[in-house]
Specification:
alpha/beta; two-stranded antiparallel ribbon
Length: about 290
């Protein structure tokens, strides 16, 4: 990722500290944890404290927004999570794609031992209780609304909307505990923070939008050059900086201000919006780490 100077990202609203306490206090009420991540940045969108916060509870990882991510990369991530001991399923909560696989994965894999135990003890009909966790804007509320068959949780396209826990009953076989979005107090890996900023998981209000767009364009030029060229009809070389690319996009789109200067702020907003909406194609921002042999 291009080393363009950018203020270090730190974003930890007070209500997120409360979320960590809520998770710890409510773990005893659930059978398993369903953790939702962004398919475009599955590792960066996992709270690194989640393992300790959930204390070894059985977990299902849902790679949401898979319609926006590179299919091959998503399969690599599924394999990665499974090899790490967690079941994983790719979904798209907006369209509903893949959601039919969620409860079978919970009951048939994640909680298989519990379900078999209940079957033997005559409690096969007891509802499973699942805690839904994830960082802001990753799709928790959309998932719950889809699974519940109606609008049960508040959904907004901005970070950190869910502020308190809420129980949602799917049917007689499952209940979901929706937790507020939670990030961590400090981003040790600024590249992870920047990837989250690309996706909109971190509020644009605290960021330098132009620098962020420059970093995204440079990444696209290196990893998805065809997508960048086809969307903006620009030519570029390895020597082009992020600023060069941003100016080329602005010029091509006619984003000029008085004196022939390019409106780079407007171009930056356009690039980020079009990436987040999938107009730049199916793009993944990171690949699974290599496991030590």
């Amino acid at each position: 990722m291009e080393n363009t100077d950018m203020k270090q990202i730190q974003w930890f609203p007070g209500h997120m500290a409360k979320t960590r306490r809520l998770i710890a206090a409510n773990l005893k009420l659930v059978d398993a944890v369903v953790e939702i991540v962004d398919s475009r940045a599955p590792l960066s969108s996992r709270n690194p404290e989640m393992d300790s916060m959930t204390k070894g509870k059985p977990r299902l990882v849902l790679l949401n927004k898979s319609d926006l991510a590179d299919d091959k990369a998503t399969q690599m991530w599924i394999n990665y999570f499974r090899s790490s001991g967690a079941e994983a399923v790719a979904v798209d909560c907006k369209s509903g794609k893949g959601l039919k696989n969620v409860m079978p994965a919970v009951k048939g894999k994640v909680l298989r031992e519990l379900m078999e135990k209940r079957e033997r003890s005559g409690m096969a009909g007891a509802a499973v209780r699942l805690m839904i966790v994830g960082i802001p804007n990753v799709g928790k509320s959309s998932l719950i609304n889809r699974l519940a068959g109606g609008k049960r949780a508040k959904v907004e396209d901005r970070p950190g909307v869910t502020r308190t826990k809420q129980w949602v009953k799917l049917d007689n076989s499952a209940e979901l505990l929706d937790m507020p979005g939670v990030l961590w107090p400090k981003f040790e890996d600024q590249n992870a923070a920047i990837r989250l900023a690309f996706t909109g998981a971190i509020s644009d209000d605290i960021l330098d939008i132009e620098t962020l767009a420059m970093k995204l364009l440079k990444y696209l030029a290196e990893e998805y050059p065809k997508s960048l060229q086809e969307r903006y009809k620009i030519e570029f070389t390895d020597e082009d900086t992020g600023l060069d690319l941003l100016e080329k996009v602005g010029r091509k789109r006619g984003m000029m201000i008085s004196g022939g200067e390019i409106n780079t702020e407007r171009a930056a907003i356009t690039v980020l919006d079009e990436f987040r909406s999938g107009k730049l194609g199916r793009i993944t921002l990171e690949t699974p780490p290599q496991k030590e042999k």
